[in-house]
Specification:
Layout lengths: L6 E6 L6 H15 L5 E6 L2 H10 L5 E5 L16 H5 L5 E4 L2 H6 L4 H13 L3 E6 L3 H5 L3 H12 L5 H5 L2 E4 L13 H19 L1 H6 L1 E5 L4 H8 L6 E4 L6 H11 L1
Parallel strand pairs: 1-2, 1-8, 2-3, 3-4, 4-5, 5-6, 6-7, 7-8
Bound molecules: phosphoenolpyruvate.
The site of phosphoenolpyruvate has 13 residues, from strand 8.
Length: 254
């Protein structure tokens, strides 16, 4: 299918996979996906597997992302990881503001925007996550929440930085629940997000930004979701942990 923007499909492995398991998975993906040229394929292992996965994908079409980073460059931040440390393993993307971090680590839009700036300063492409909870959707607040998150999490980025930023629309009620947004709901939210980007950064920038959908993406729903005009890829959690399901999501999206 002809898309306005190149699809980017990312696997968020979350806190799963030892190094040995990570290598099994990524080697399987390399075999399955060697001929795929139409999609940017990305895996985001836990920090502890970045080094080995980075070596394993050197000669492949799979790119590497991290799941988080600190907003500072260096210093007394026990347990934290800086962008420059990710760059040592050829990490090119970093997921920021995932709803699990917003919920458990109390990450705010303001913090996420500082991380996004720090990522760009290190030439990492941020994948900035936004999305409403079930209560917010049922209360008719979806657009209000998305507007606030897009404004807040991307505050201070230049238009040039925005073009190199990816947004992941992940309705919280769809993450890990098996209940995905319908293609219409995803398209509607993505159109809205793009309209907010146009107001902040201009029409031309908004047209170029890739917006992924995330939330219970599986091989069976990937085609319909990815065929929506404003859905430019997927951020996949559970189904990215097995070679078969992640490879099928990618193949079904082409
Ligand atoms: C995610 O956590 O980014 C996600 C989309 O998870 P799942 O695919 O399991 O819903």
């Amino acid at each position: 299918m002809e898309k306005a923007r190149r699809l980017i499909i990312a696997g968020n492995w979350k806190m799963n996979k030892t190094v040995a398991e990570a290598l099994d998975l990524v080697n399987g993906l390399k075999r399955e996906l060697a001929n795929v040229k139409e999609v940017d394929i990305l895996v985001c292992p836990p920090f502890t597997a970045l080094c080995e996965v980075s070596k394993a994908i050197l000669d492949s079409n799979i790119k590497l992302g991290a799941q988080n980073m600190n907003e500072n460059n260096v210093g007394a931040f026990t347990g934290e990881i800086a962008a420059v440390m990710l760059k040592e393993f050829s990490v090119r993307y970093v997921i920021l503001g995932h709803s699990e971090r917003r919920q458990y680590q109390k990450e705010t839009d303001e913090l996420i925007s500082r991380k996004a700036l720090a990522a760009h300063n290190a030439a990492l492409k941020p994948i900035v996550c936004v999305g409403e909870t079930l209560n917010e959707r049922e209360g008719g607040l979806t657009e209000k929440v998305l507007d606030r998150q897009v404004h807040g999490s991307l505050a201070g980025l230049t238009p040039e930085q925005m073009e190199e930023t990816i947004i992941a629309y992940e309705p919280v009620w769809a993450i890990g629940t098996g209940r995905n947004a319908t293609a219409e709901q995803a398209q509607q939210a993505h159109t809205f997000i793009r309209s907010v980007l146009a107001k902040i950064f201009g029409e031309n920038v908004a047209k170029k930004v890739r917006i992924q959908y995330g939330g219970s993406v599986k091989p069976s729903n990937a085609r319909e979701l990815m065929s929506q005009p404003d859905v430019d890829g997927a951020l996949v959690g559970g189904a990215s942990l097995e070679v078969r399901s992640f490879a099928d999501i990618i193949k079904n999206s082409i």
